[in-house]
Structures are given as structure tokens and as C-alpha cells.
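Workshop exercise sheet. Pairs work together: one partner reads the sequence aloud, the other fills in the structure field after running the prediction. Swap roles for the next sheet.
Pair: D.N. / O.F.
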Amino acid sequence: MANGADRRLFWGTAAAVVVADVVTKLLAESLLARHLPVQVLGDYVQLRLVYNQCAAFGLCLGAYSRWIFFGLAIAALFVLRSMVRSARPGDRFRIVSLALVCAGAVGNVVDRLRSAQGVVDFVDVGIGSARWPTFNVADSAITVGAIALAVSLWLEGRAQERAKEARAAEP
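Structure field:
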């Protein structure tokens, strides 16, 4: 990521996601503590305040989960930093993908630092008793960013394979 436009895109996207995450979590804590649940689309989408001391899908590592997942998130941010730095200039799809994943990780790290209660989750989706684990803006950014990043890496791999095949076919 060598040029200024790429840096602005990365930091603008990341900042917008972190701000949206922090603001929505603060709103969830202040508004949902008194009214559980708030139906948005009937039973399908509800807002429900949950504090998650573990990781995605309830993955827990005991009494030290908060700090273990904090450390893992920091390590992931260093790996993502190297991916951001090595992104090809002008690869906006990759840059936005990385910005989403980084911002989501930062949003959840902020929660782990500010409260021993855990990460604030508040979006509850499902049908009847079949519910998806409650999530937040940071979780959504990580998921969308990770899927987009996987697509970006896959497309890059295919392009490299085609280039290698084209070179091998040359006389």
C-alpha cells in the first residue's frame, strides 16, 4: 500500500467501522439494559444486550479468556499489518477487506480493555429457538472483511496460476 489514496481508503474505512462499533455498543448498553429484547423484524431480528467474555460462537478458554483473546487479537493485528503493507497499490478491494478485519479486531479489543464483562453484543438473528450467536458491528466487519479477503486472495492465486500457465505455454 504505497500511495496516499490507498492509505486514506484504509484509515477512513477502519475509522468509520471503529466509530460505528463503539457508538452502537454504547447505545446498546444504555438503551437495551432496560428493554429486552427489542424486536426489529419480529422474531427474526432482535436487539438484545449480551456480554461475551469468550470469543466467536462461545469459544471459551477458562478464567483467562479475556486476556488470551486480547493477546490473540493483538497478534492478528500484527499479521494484518504486514498484509496491509504488502497490498498492491490500487488494490482497493484488498485494502477495504483488510480495513474491515482490522477495525473489527480493534473494536472488540477496545471492549476487552474497557470492561471485564466482555465484548458487547446486541444483534440477535434467528427463527424461534434457532438463533445465530448474538453479534455486533465489529463482528460483522470481521466476517465481511474475512470473506472479502479470502475472495481477494483466491482471485490473486488464480491470476498467478494463469500467468504461470501462459509462461509455460510460450515456446
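Discussion prompt: The longest strand covers residues 119-127. What would you look at next?
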